[in-house]
């Protein structure tokens, strides 16, 4: 059994003993799922407005769509902050488990909150790195859609996915480092990148698998106009939550193995 398979099996056994660890990610998956569905619906409303030759959208409707966009962005930002804090909470919960204590979601969340100004800035900086790298390609993808150049669109979309994967790999251990080490947010990013370099193969496989499942969830969000696609989307959100829980549980396990030698 290779390292990744062993860690997955061990994590499954851990989660089997403590199924409540799934709860935070199930909540986040539900909230993100709502955001994805609203984003897909909003994007379809906005497409005619992006066409300079179209006059099918009235100014009132356009203003309404823009207001909805602002509210949606605010909602997604708040969900992202909550997700970041829950992600860090898993490291505290795993520490309880390894010390033969029953993991407490509330206490772990309080621990994450106590390091809010380390965890959240580090997570936002990692997101900004991805955005800065991908923004030119997102712009090209938007132009490709307007020009009906689907070859260019899929190429740039693929590049954005690759960039997402690389950033995920680089900062894979961000949350356990934030909890277990006394560093500022720059130090957290540096330490996380060092750990990913040492365990690149394992982190790459786990990150790629999670990204693959997330991509399917996004696809079904845009297809959820018929009930069967909506049901598939819900199923994939649940699956994404389960896989995300595995991945987040793996983070502190990798950290303890690399840094503490356990």
TrEMBL record:
TM ranges:
21-43, 63-86, 116-146, 152-175, 203-223, 229-256
Asked whether the UniProt record includes Membrane among its keywords, one would answer: yes
Keyword annotations of the record = Membrane, Transmembrane, Transmembrane helix
Q: What is this protein called?
A: Glycerophosphoryl diester phosphodiesterase membrane domain-containing protein
Q: Which organism is it from?
A: Candidatus Iainarchaeum sp
